[in-house]
Each structure stands twice: as structure tokens, then as C-alpha cells.
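B., you asked whether I could sanity-check this one before it goes into the benchmark set. Here's the sequence:
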Amino acid sequence: MQKTSFTDEQIDAMDPFSCIWCEASAGCGKTRVLAHRVALLQVFKSESRKILCLTFTNAAAEEMAHRTRSLLLSSDGKLELIDSANKVCSKFGYPLPNPNVECAAPDLSEESISKSFSTVHGLCSGIVRKFYEYCGVNKDFSLIDDGAKATLTQNAYESLYDYDSAKESIKTLSKSYSESTIRDGLFELMENRSFLPSTESQISFLGSLRSTSPLPETVFSENVIADLELLCDVHGSAKDKQTLSFIAQRPRFSFEYQKIFLTEEMLPRKNVFSKKFYSQNKVIEKFVDKEVSALLSYSEWQNSHRIKEITSEYTKLFYTFLRIYEEKKINQNSLDYDDLILKTLSMMRSPESMGPVLHHIGQTINHILVDEAQDLSIAQWGIVRHLIEAAVFLNQSPHRSFLVVSDPKQSIYGFQGASPSHLFQSKEFLKTWAGHHGKPFREVQLNISFRSVPKILLTVNSIFSSKNISMGVPFRNHISCARLAQLSGIVGINKCSYNNKDDKCDFHIQLAKNTIKKIIELVSSKNSWLYTKERKPSFGDIMILTPKRDCLFESIVKEADFCSVPISGIDRYDVFEQQISQDLIWIARWAMCHHNDWALAMAIKGAFLGCSEEALFWLSHDRGKSSIWKKLQSKIKTQERSTIDSEIRLIYEKLEYWSSISRTLSPYEFFIKVVSSDNSIKSFLKRLGPQSIEFVENFLTAAQEFENTSPAPSISKFVRHVEKTKRIVKKDVSHSNKDSVKLMTVHGAKGTQSPIVFLLDISGQQSTRENFLYSDNFFIIRPPEKSSSRTVKSLKDLNKKYTAEERARLLYVAITRAEEQFYAFVSQESKI
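And here's what the prediction gave me:
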């Protein structure tokens, strides 16, 4: 198929003057469609600065801008653009633009074209800076990154104890939760605040939960029990008499009383009394059923009351926490990335600022294009709706338009507030408004893949057309384009399991070994061939996907390094979770407390000392009540000789040196000395590989920033800071070694593709770590599994359903990254 060929559906979506909702399946050329539509708007004399194309990431914005620049400024691109312009004009009856692109759009330049593309955050940053007076900041406000946000959040948490109301809430919550759990809950809410319900909505929901006890009437009164005892003497069994005795003696609604009528799963017991006893008086069964109903009603009230009480305290505490955090930002004239979204949306809705902001949008934007719309949160959708309303619907010009491109099957960012339901609601909103304002609105489906061979797509169709697995969104069968239709492919799905949690990491190691071994075979085998590339495969043709960054992720990196397989793609990581960072922290913990044997043992085994198992055993064994450090000092002083004496002496000298400098140096200075000690760099490079240098540099940067922001920095304070915060580093891997295996999470692989894809997922149905259950209108504390509250049960069931559907969509994303070969290692529980 020629590059300049387009499907009819692609031509429909390129129509520059219609309002279009386009659902584009994976690999169906939606980026090409977007680039052509922007380029067509340029040659139809729409000013560059009045075209806005919103993308999900900076990388996607740059890729889209690059493609558009190529169409408008390169000779080959211009020929392709003329072809698409002819097809669009022929189909929709538009007059042909000037075939000379320079004449049609004389103001074109690389800079002017690039200005048409932005992320949602980038757009909001510009709006907030222009209308800063409505946001409570000065014009020169700073934007804090994730590291600075984590530090500020921790400072706000520590300041909570200065507020009496916060201390009361913490005291109440401490009856049920540890301090670390309370802290984690607050930090989770802070992380999710961009899609939390409004304060009014949350308070309204909490008020709707029943507060008063139902106090059901007594069923087994003294008279009823006395009558039943007489009946039992004649027709009952010994067990029936015992049950009646328990009912009479146990306090009603007590746990022991509940056990008589209900199972641990809060289900009615089938035989409270014997069948013979029931048969003698039918009213007994009615009494039991009535008491079961009363107990369930009371239990539900108890659960609802507890959830309401805890959620109410958390709500009060969180909004105090948030207020402190906001005050700290105002004091330093800064905003975080969530603020860009929330403050922009607030300005668009506020009567005071709505007029100027929406007028500015209407004057500066004529055409809006939205990419990856399924990834937008509810707040971001609010902004996009207002943008389209101001730029397209409220303007009388018939030539203003929008294009929204989405794929509900790739909606995988639920943890950031995105969901298919928000997508579908926004579609109906835009459709209704387009009709109301007389704007032409069309829906377009792109289902022809220009990426994957038929074997891959048959697998996709088979899995997601089945009733065994649901993505929660409509699915239509995919087909390959004519160029790929006759090419072969390979799909291999292997189900695997591990016996228990203890051998999970060992299983990860074995899985990593098997995967790297298979990759080496594919690259080295004489029979390996890529039909889509018409050549043998190389390492750069392979992508490994995992559900998350865990020990499996690390095992793959280590095994690849061991086997000299080049690997790249680690685009995001927590500095403090890296092994070399943990080794540095163990050294600091011991330096602060020489009696901490666990810290010393971990430090000795770590990358900076590299102690052998024999030496560690020699130090730890038979020391009585003495600490490892005391024993080591004793051995050195007595100059005891052994086969490992030189290793022990070197360890002692380093520890003695680190101990002495820890008393006087700042955190940054201390860790610099540790890293630069004799043979330290050589030692950790040997143990952890060259990538560890980057981890060390980022760790030292974190220590330096801590010193600059902490009023009285110390090593102990920095260690506590590391324990309570994350330091996320994001890397641009687009320019990494092209001939290396790409290792990514499924989330990170969005927007990428590879001839050969491995999916490693042995985790089955992952359990959530969230402390709360979320709805658009409220959040509540996550209750125990056996909670009997109907409201909570329905929300839990809904969350479970949404989680399962999103995992199915993750699987769809993983498989559709593959062009020609797909290999999966999935759990036994998988429905594939």
C-alpha cells in the first residue's frame, strides 16, 4: 500500500471544518490523521496560532509537531498533503487550496507549527500565568516538581500537630489505625485530589448515611423463650436446648449472639434448630428469620456508622492538611501540577473570571483537536468542554471545528481519574451541543490496523470477543491493512504459577532467565525472520512489558546485564527504592546507632562493602549479647588472624571512618564521602552495574535539595525524610540505544510498538493498596472484606468490576503493541 493511501474513515476524520468524534483502535493511523488535519487547516488559511492540538504527553506533542512540520515543510510531505487535500475536497465539496503550500500558508515556520501542539498541563500553565490574579499567586510563580511536592507535603503533614482539631481527628483515627496508616491515607488523598469530589458533595454523602440505630424490636422475649423451652422438652434435642439457653443468656447484638444466627460471612445459618423442632411449630422458623433480618439490619448500621465516623474524621483531617499545604505553597509563591488543572477549571467556572478567560479562548483558538481523549480525568474533561464551548460553539463562524480522537479500549489510567464513563458522557455532551448550535457532528470508527499482522489481530479478536473477559467498552473486530494481510505471525501464551509468596521472587528470577534466554535465541537463530521488516530480528526489535516496576522488573535488568543483552526503557523510577539508595540509608542508620545490628548487617552485605557470606557469618556468630560492631572492634584490637582477616580489616576501616565523619557532616557531605571512599565506586559498579551511577547522582541531588529546604538538616532527619517520601525521576528514553531491548510497564508502552513483544504478568488479579473507595460524588474509607453495608458492598463490587475491566484493557494495550510476534507469560488465573 502506498504511503499516500488513506481509508475512507481516515478521510472522514481529516475533514477540517466538521466536528468529529473519532474512535481509533490501536495501530489504525490516528496520529497520521491528526497531523494531516492540522496541516490541512494550515493550507486552508487557518492561522497556526489559532489551532490547538492537545496531547497527553510532551513526547506525543513533539511527535505530532514533527509529523506536521514534515507534511508542510518537506518536499515528500507536501506531495502527501496535496493528495489528502484532494481527497478531502473531493469528498466534501470544498474548493481546492493552492497546491503551492508556501503560497497557501505563507507564515509557516517550524516554530509557528510547533506552537499548535500542547499538553493539557502546558495549556493550563499558560492560562494560569495570563490570569494569575484570579489564582492567588504572583505572575512570577514557580512550578514545583514531584520531589519538591513530596517535601512540601511531608512538611504540611508534620505541621498538622500544631492544630487542635487535627490532633483530635488523629486521636480518634488512632483507635483503629496506626500513625503510618493515617499518614498514608492522607498522602493518598493528596495524590488524588485532582479528581476528588467537591467538599459539598462529600459532606452531603456523609450526611446521607444513617446515623441512628435501627433498634429492632425483640423477637426472642422471655415469654417466647419460656414457651419454646416447654416445647423443646418434648420435641427438641439437647442441641436445641443449648441454643435456647445461649439465646437467653447472650446479650443481643453481641458477637457471640450473632454467631448463633449468622456465619462468619454474615449469611443466615441453615439450621439454628433441628428439623424436628422446626416441624413441631412453624412459627419458630419465622422467629429465626425475623431475628436474622434484625441482626443484619443492625450489623449494616454498625458498619455504616463506623465508615461514616472514620471517613468524617479523615475528611476533616484531610481538608486541614490540604489547607496547610496550600498555605505553604502561597508563602513560597508556587503551584504544583495539579493546581494548573484545578485553578484553570475553577477560573472557567467562576462568575468573576469566567468571562475574561473564555473570551480570551474564543479570540485565540478557532480549531481544537484532542488526542488520547480516553486518558483525560474528569477535571481535564471539564477544561476541554469549556475550551470547545468557547472556541467552537459560542462563535458564529461556521468554519470553527473540533476533532476528538479516543480509544475506550485503551483507557488504562483509572488511578489518575480517567474512565470510559467520563469519555462517553463527554461524547454525548459535545454531540448535543453541536446539534444545538447547528454544527455538523459525525462519529468515525478506525479499525483497520497498519501495525499488526493478522495472527496478532486474530488473537485480539478471539480474546475480547469472548464473554469470559470484559473491557467494559464496546469491541469491534480488528483487521489488518492490505500490506500486512498476507504476512505470518507468532503468538505464544504460557500459563505459569508459583506455589506461595515466599518463592515469588525466585520465580521472578527464573522467569527473567527464561525470557532473556528466549530473546537471545530469537536474535541468534538462523531461522528467525521478521516478515514486516524483511530481515533477521535484532535486540532493538524486542519489547518486554510488565504490569509494574517490582522485583520482576529488576530481575530482568540484572539478567540482561549478566547475559550482555542491551536493555533500555527504564523511563520512571523512585530514587529511594533503588538498591544502592537503600545501601546508603543502611550505612546512615548504623552510623547513627552502632547497636543497630540489622542496619550494620545490611550495610556490610551492601554494594559499598560487599562482604562475603562467610565474613558476615564470622562476625555475627557466637557473639553473645555483644553487638556486631563491638565484636568487630574486639577482633581488630586483638589482631586475631583468619583466612578473611584482610576483608574484615578493610570493612572495619571504612566503618570507623564513616562513623567519625557522621558526627560533623551534613547529609550531602556525608554521603559524598561514603560514595567516594576507597574502592566504593569500583565495588558498587561491580555489584549493580553502570546504571547505578545515575541512581547515586540522583540520591546525592536529593540529599542536597533536602539541605537547602530543611531548617536544620541532619543525617537522621534525612533518613526519616527518605522513609516517608518518594523521589520519582522521569527519563526521556526516546533517544536511548536503538539496538537495545525496550523494558517498560504496560502503562509506559502506550503510544509505542515493536515487532516482537513479551508480556510478563504472573500476578493474577492484583490486590489494591488504596485506603479509600472512590466515586465521582464521594470517597469512603475502604472497609473490611466482610462489611455488610449495602451501600459499601455495591461500591466495592463496582470498584472490583472496574478494576477487572481496566486489567482487560491493559491486556489489550499490551497485545496491540506487537507488530508480528507476541509471547505472554500469564498467571494460571488469567482468562486468556
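One thing to flag: The longest strand covers residues 818-827. Otherwise nothing jumped out at me.
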